[in-house]
Amino acid sequence: MAELVWLIPAFPLFGFLTILIFGRRFGDPFAGWFATAMVFASFIASIGVYSDLLGMNEDDREHIENLYSWVPVGSLQIDLAFLVDPLSITMCLFVTGIGGLIHLYSIGYMHGDANFSKFFLYLNLFIFSMTLLVLGENLLVTFLGWEGVGTCSYLLIAFWQTRESAATAGKKAFLTNRVGDWGVMLAMFLAFSAVGSISYSVMNNNAETGIMSQTTATGIAVLLFVGAVGKSAQLPLYIWLPDAMEGPTPVSALIHAATMVTAGVFLMVRINPILTVAADWVMPMIAWIGVITALFAATIALAQRDIKKVLAYSTISQLGYMFLAIGTGAYIAAIFHMVTHAVFKALLFLGSGSVIHGMHDEQDMNKMGKLFKYMPITASTFIVGWLAIAGVPPFSGFWSKDEILLFALGDNVGLYVIGIITALLTALYMTRMVIMTFFGEAKWTSFANEDEMPEVSPGEEPVETHGAHGEFKPHESPVIMLIPLVVLAVFGLFAGLIQLPSLWGVPDSAEHKLEDWLHPDVAFGEAEIAGTWADGHVMLLVIFAVSAALIGILLGWLIYQRKRIKAWEPTLFANGWYYNWAVTWFMGNPGRESFEATATFDSKVIDGAVNGVGVAVREVATEERKAQTGYVRQYAGIIGIAAVLLLGWFVIVRGIL
């Protein structure tokens, strides 16, 4: 099966090409079913390759499938090749698995949209690009998928392009990611000039054996980190991700959970040997940027009113945790949290989409409340996602987030303190969202008493009311949208089983499954906490983490449900610390002026100098042409005069008789 790894990207590519040609004939809903089938076929192929690798010895779990020679130019030989190893197949499993569930959900969510087929065309292209990214054997193949998901994000975020906000958000995502792409391209140039290859195996092997100098490793690591910051929405390039909410909700789930934003984390884990031999300041830089981003985004999420904006800033915060793990050498913990986050964040986004669907496209949580009665399945599954991201045991987020905090404490106490504060804030703002949406006061109806509200069955059409404001009754989503929620809720509860820690009562056979699986890919760079204070006080740290989650939930309940504490939602947080405003102001004022000045300098000075040389050559040549009369006697006279002058020079100057 490892030799058939090309089937993983081939299925969504086939779906894309087929819908491109026959999409209008397929229509709604067949185009959606076909696209979904292609992604699930890719998932089945991923399971097949995974099973193949699982039956091999640890040292044999790597296979390079070379399709053809892509760029044979002199010493630059780049193959279109796929790297099959535990890391790439882990990525493929959750990208295609969760991607398939999002496709299935989209059939119901996008039903009736005028561009239904086009939407699934883009979704299949997105999955193809992401599988290409994670399977790439070298940086160029990865970069092809990297640019593919960037292009698809633009197309999907701006899918409803008639809305100016959506069109602007799509352009913002595209342009912001170009900054990160600049870093990836420079890293490729540096790697080839220094190592002679951009193959991961060659680069990592050179780092492990000491052939790669620390300076080269530092340059490659920092430049690729720039790309990761752009793609995975870290400070200072996170600004595109909150605006990505302008796209349809399945797009938000696909970008935030299973695909695009995880690319930067994956890339950092892929080059972990290079990070390990880079300068001593590189890893702390990654860790501090990650943890500061986590705290920064968590504070903003505390004061957002849009249900999808809360989840957007939550994604930025959780990605910060992953970079905190990378910066402390906890690569397995980073992948562990990436997997669990993909599950519960997809659940939360699809759940929010179900709420928006049932509320007739309303996204403001201040206009929701007491929806549990009318959307019981959505609410129940959403609560699973809430408890998972809050870090409440035994839900999946508890195991992965606490493992990151464990390594953070083993590396630096300051990182741990900020991480645990962020965990408390995460529980607080997620509790706020759950209460404002599913409990609290019903702010969407003119009825004063909940008992007066008519019952609405799951999947039933909303019952219109004609109260003071002509409001409507919320309703549960159709079954096709609820199935992915239930499946993701189950995984949100049990996904932590893939990496259970060594705690009391856990059989040895159930411990560290993910660590054993990923060990060949991270063995060189993975950090150890043995001998640190954290290693000797694991249970105490677990108590701290659980306490932080419970305190956050309790505060949220007292503030938003019981109203015992006044809510503190400062304008500073609501406006994102005015960072986005500052960037917008700069780009529209001094930025625009400086760009225009640069363009003027380029056209007047740089182009002027080049054009001036051309004009000068033309003028000189025009004057010299006048000496070319075509008369033989003139040319003979010039030759005679030149001969006399040459003879005189030899006789007089050189003294030759």
What does this structure look like?
The protein is mainly alpha-helical. The chain has helices at about 5-55, 85-110, 115-135, 140-155, 165-195, 200-210, 215-230, 240-245, 250-260, 265-270, 270-275, 280-300, 305-325, 330-360, 375-390, 395-410, 415-440, 480-495, 515-520, 535, 540-560, 570-575, 580-590, 590-625, 630-655, and strands at about 65-75, 75-85. A two-stranded antiparallel ribbon has the order 1-2. A hairpin with a 2-residue loop joins strand 1 (about 65-75) and strand 2. Helix 12 (about 280-300) runs antiparallel to helix 13 (about 305-325). The longest helix is centred in the N-terminal third of the chain and has 48 residues, at about 5-55. It is globular. The relative contact order is 0.08.
Shape: globular
pLDDT below 50 for ≥5 consecutive residues: which ranges? 446-470
**Strand numbers in spatial order across the main sheet:** 1-2
Structural class: mainly alpha
Mean pLDDT: 89
Order of helices and strands: HEEHHHHHHHHHHHHHHHHHHHHHHHH
Q: Assess the beta-strand content as a share of residues.
A: under 5%
